[in-house]
């Protein structure tokens, strides 16, 4: 539950953005609608193959046409861009945003409550998905996918060493030592200072709750005991030399995933969509298993990523935009296309029983029950009570402070203290009350 102060700030920001748009005479959609012509909606999304799905909608809906733009900016850069553009009323109609960034858009009045345009929309999602987009009863986005953390490992390497998938983090550490001892050129994984959402998911599994709020007061706990436990664990493995510290998505990391230097990846349900670009020569060699537990028998996991689609306060056609998002993220037709072309695990509850999930992603042909496995894991995923309205600042501090710690060989736990301080200071500058 977000505090009243977030809603008040959102209302004030929305009014300011609307005034700016009127003064500037800005138009943000290509269609007129009012003269009998088709409504045109501008949609920004980075999903591969989304154009195929948009074309399907456009062919069936001549009166509501969607123009897709694929951004060159990163997800975090896009959030900043949307906030800036809102000052001039210049945002597109529909934006894709990662869950952790949505509160920043709410606080800056960038997105609108969709309940006004479709009161039945929220009922198509479970509580875990709605928790990412629903605040004080208002629905600020339509969940697209759900991304629980799981562990991917090279089945061939594990089989050659007589290893089974680790069920606890102690077993993961033991497997990392065994693999590196058998072949000093191989590592079970890497710790990435470039992916704060990944670390946040690991902290969630351990019981962390970085942000919570009551009335008008926020509590920030990025350096809590659970998060430090996770940081200390990985620092120990890095110190032993059995885990690398290359950031995910780097050229070196991709090469090492492809050539067998790296034989494990703690990732999320969407990973099979990324594997063909990361490690194309290893198709059919990876198996997904449950995330190792801190305590044997505990099946909790965390969440890494996942996205929502939101309608901006600059849209002149919010009802039509909501209709498109309803189709895109809840209809069998659109979800079947997203599963087959984007490899999403749907957030919509109806989408989780589609026949398209009976076949694995092409890259995971050796694991025919891949989606059934994800379906078992998804209900065990933990998240934070709420993402902070300045999560993007926290994420930037993570990259800076964790990157410096890895480079200098200093404490990751101390880096969490620095991230905590940066996050609290920024939240207070934004005008929020923070519990001390």
Automatic annotation (TrEMBL):
Keywords: Cell membrane, Lipoprotein, Membrane, Palmitate, Signal
Superkingdom per UniProt: Bacteria
Pfam families, sorted: SBP_bac_1
CDD domains: PBP2_TMBP_like
Residues making up the signal peptide according to the UniProt record: 1-20
Record keyword Cell division present: no
Protein name: Sugar ABC transporter substrate-binding protein
Organism annotation: Antiquaquibacter soli
């Amino acid at each position: 539950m977000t505090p009243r102060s977030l809603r008040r700030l959102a209302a004030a920001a929305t009014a300011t953005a609307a005034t700016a748009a009127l003064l500037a005479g800005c138009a943000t959609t290509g269609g007129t609608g009012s003269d009998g012509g088709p409504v045109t909606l501008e949609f920004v999304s980075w999903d591969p193959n989304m154009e195929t799905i948009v074309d399907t909608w456009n062919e069936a809906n001549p009166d509501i046409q969607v123009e897709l733009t694929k951004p060159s900016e990163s997800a975090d850069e896009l959030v900043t861009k949307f906030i800036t553009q809102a000052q001039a009323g210049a945002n597109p109609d529909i934006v894709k945003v990662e869950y952790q960034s949505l509160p920043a858009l709410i606080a800056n009045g960038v997105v609108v409550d969709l309940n006004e345009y479709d009161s039945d929309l929220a009922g198509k999602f479970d509580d875990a998905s709605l928790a990412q987009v629903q605040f004080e009863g208002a629905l600020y986005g339509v969940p697209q996918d759900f991304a629980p953390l799981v562990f991917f490992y090279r089945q061939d390497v594990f089989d050659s060493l007589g290893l089974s998938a680790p069920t606890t983090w102690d077993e993961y550490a033991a497997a990392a030592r065994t693999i590196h001892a058998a072949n000093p050129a191989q590592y079970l994984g890497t710790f990435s200072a470039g992916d704060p959402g990944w670390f946040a998911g690991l902290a969630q599994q351990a019981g962390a709750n970085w942000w919570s709020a009551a009335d008008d007061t926020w509590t920030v706990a990025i350096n809590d005991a659970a998060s430090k436990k996770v940081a200390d664990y990985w620092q120990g493995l890095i110190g032993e030399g059995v885990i690398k510290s290359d950031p995910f998505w780097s050229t070196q990391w991709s090469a090492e995933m492809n050539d067998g230097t790296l034989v494990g990846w703690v990732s999320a349900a969407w990973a099979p969509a990324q594997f063909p670009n990361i490690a194309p020569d290893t198709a059919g060699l990876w198996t997904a298993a449950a995330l190792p537990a801190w305590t044997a028998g505990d099946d909790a996991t965390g969440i890494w990523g996942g996205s929502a689609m939101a309608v901006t306060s600059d849209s002149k056609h919010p009802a039509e935009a909501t209709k498109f998002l309803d189709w895109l993220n809840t209809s069998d037709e659109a979800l079947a296309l997203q599963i087959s072309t984007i490899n999403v695990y749907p957030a919509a509850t109806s989408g989780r029983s589609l026949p398209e999930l009976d076949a694995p992603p092409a890259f995971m042909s050796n694991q025919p029950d891949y989606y059934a496995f994800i379906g078992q894991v998804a209900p065990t995923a933990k998240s934070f009570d709420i993402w902070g309205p300045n999560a993007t600042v926290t994420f930037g501090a993570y990259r800076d402070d964790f990157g410096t710690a890895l480079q200098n060989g200093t404490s990751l736990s101390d880096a969490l203290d620095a991230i905590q301080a940066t996050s609290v200071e920024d939240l207070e500058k934004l005008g929020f009350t923070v519990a001390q």
